[in-house]
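Provenance and format

Records in this collection were gathered into a single text stream. Each protein contributes a sequence line and a token line. The two records reproduced below are adjacent in the stream.
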Amino acid sequence: MEILQREIAEHLRMPRENLQVLQEVDSTNTYCKTLALQDAADGTIVLAERQTAGRGRLGRSFQSDNPMGIYLSALWRMDVTPQQLMVLPALAAVAACRAVERVGGCALEIKWPNDLVLHGRKVGGILTESVWNSGKSATVTGIGINVCHGTEDFAPELRGMAASLQMLLEKEISRGALAAALIEELDLLRTDAWAEQAQWLAEYRRRCLTTGKEVQIITGDTRRVATALEVDENFGLVVRESDGTQNTVYAGEVSVRGLYGYAP
């Protein structure tokens, strides 16, 4: 058994079936989508030591070409509504925050909709995708967390925005322990979140750093400045536009003034 897989097994509270740990893959989400088309079991988890073509939201790449982070995808076959699927990335962000808090002893924040933030720096992100095959649907949720990176491990253009848990906490973080905690929190989400969504929404709102801030909303080629007011019951971002009207944002990119170098 490889080192990471052994460490995960040591930290899991109960043995976990349908868990694959790969040395290298193009993208755990892409790999999981292939497994879904091959009728892989509900609850399958895939981790990789490194990704050669990691992906993030809005078609962006996610730097994950070294064995210093958690690169994980979960395959779920859930009988839920499209509206419930729409909020899954936000729920996964809460699960990831809980896992980091268990292992690192620190409280992460969430930049709407699902950037994981610590001390003003991005330490992780989430990408959820759907798969259809012969009338059956599956959902793949990918989570990437920067764990052991040093500044030199990030591309120069990312160094002002991205960081790792170890950089910011100045202490060693076990990738095996964090991966195990993340798997357990995702399993809890899978069984608990739909029935207790109000509780998960309350935690998301508490962690969301976007509300109360001036933001820039980027949708396609358009940009506008607004004030983020609150997160609604469907995890949409309610904003006050420059003309005083209110609107709810469900997609696109939202930059928070003073975060990641954004200053309108």
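Adjacent record:
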Amino acid sequence: MKLDFGKKMSTAIIAIIAPLMVNAQTEQQAPPLTIDLEKAIEIALSENPTVKIADLEIQKKKYAKKSAQSALYPQIDLVGQYTRAVKKQVVYFDEGGGSMFGDMFAPIIGGTDLTLQGVDPNYVSGTLKNNVEKVQEIINEENAAKSGDGGMTMGRDNTWTGGFNLNWPVVVPTLWKSLQISSLDVELAVETARSSRIEMITSIRKTYYSVLLAKDSYNVLQESYDNAELSYNDIKNKFDQGIVSEFDLIRADVNVKNIKPNLTQAQNAYNLATLQLKALMGIDIDQEIEVQGSLLDYENALYNEILSVDTTLNYNSDLRQFDIQTEQLQKTLSLYKAQYLPTIALTGNYTYMSMNNNFKFGDYKWNPYSNVGVTISVPIFDGLKKRNDIKQTKVSLEQMKWQREDIVRNLKLAVNNSVNNMTNYVEQVFSTKDVIAQAQKGYEISQKLYDTGMGTLLELNDAQLGLTQASLAFNQAIYNFLASKADLDKTLGIDIDLMNENK
């Protein structure tokens, strides 16, 4: 029984673990993503969060512009109001104004009195007038009793209103200027997004070159390690045969062990540079990538890169953003000046109103009324606010003029420094290339001399060290040139479109 239970448990464990092992094996067998420089830039521009945020900022500015444009259209509101009269208004009429038989009604009553005399022979003249006065006396007494001072109360307990209001700005100069500023906001957001792309391209290029530098450095050190290990094995065989001394064997062993830490450090540098590249590209850190190429691939293009450099600042993003901001300030100055101009707006409403003393909505009588009008606003005096705003903006424009000159001066200095550095690095590349050739020849001679017993191990190690240092300096010079070129393109504002055009 215990044996059957153990078999069942083993079967269950295998059933659970087997799919996981298959999945793990499948993941391990997934091929790495092959990356070159163009592919790295393409992925970064589509996946990096910084670029996506910049693109979303453009959308925000476009929506803000549309929101500002909505002020040009008619604004229509549905409105409703309920008012409860806690204490009604009391009105007074002077000089007979409080009597129905005042100056306004006297001609009407007199004419009616004459008409009744002609129609009815039994009608006594003045009867209508007397009756009206009696009615008015009764009303006055009732109002006096309610108000206490002979006034007349007006209105009812409940007042209901509902309808539509219209407001349409027709001539609003400040609004027009604001829309121009909103358009420049969109343009500035687009240029800022382009700047983010340029920053991202520069970071990708320099990190990609760092990966190549780390890989090439590792290969150089690996070759040096292989040569040192090969020498050690050869010397060990000769020591076993009694041809060389133990001192040479010890030195050969020390030489191999001294190179090993440098080889490990180069491998760690490659891994770190690869992780940085994946982070900039916006891909999963666990995704395996294989970086193609080497720094040697760029050697032949160095001189052409120097000769084809265009040092104009027409595409510099910082300068473009500064010019857009200056234009915005100029539009702001125009906006302040437009505040002196009058504004014209069309207004109108269509409203229903009902006044009642109860809440029997079915019995309410709704009376509509409507009106249209034109509102003209002419600014006269605001405590000199507009005048001071204009003067302040003019001072800011003068400041920006001098700031632009300083920016251009610093940018030209940065461009000249980059070009000079690139020229120096090109010279280093070709000089170290000659050094590598000489070091390689010296190493081969030292190897032959040591093999024939005419040279020492120290000379062989020195030749190997010289060859290694020359190779590392060669790779470093190419990397320095490429990094300086990336910085120069960033200063010049070379984006992906301009890079494709220059190919």
